[in-house]
Specification:
Blueprint lengths: L1 H19 L4 H8 L2 H7 L4 H19 L10
Helix pairs in contact: 1-4
Organism: Morella rubra
Keywords: Ubl conjugation pathway
Pathway: Protein modification; protein ubiquitination
Length: 74
């Protein structure tokens, strides 16, 4: 669990930088295209799902606040 949490922290740090620099839109597309991750999500133990949701939540909040702009068709 510690390794997954560390990786999630690292990814969150990177996403924070992308949002701050206003270049997070490409990462949103990349994250949204993670079909394998979406399929595996229900099979992953709950404690690990939380780490994945942290990144998704961070992106959704940034989109809602207008920090990341994505086209409607995305």
């Amino acid at each position: 669990m510690g390794e997954i949490a560390q990786e999630a922290d690292n990814m969150q740090w990177i996403v924070d930088i992308l949002i701050e620099k206003k270049v997070g839109d490409e990462f949103v597309k990349l994250w949204a295209d993670q079909k394998e991750l979406a399929v595996l999500h229900s099979k992953i133990p709950t404690m690990y799902r939380h780490e994945i949701r942290r990144i998704t939540t961070l992106l959704c909040v940034a989109i809602r606040r207008g920090h990341i702009l994505v086209p409607k068709e995305t």
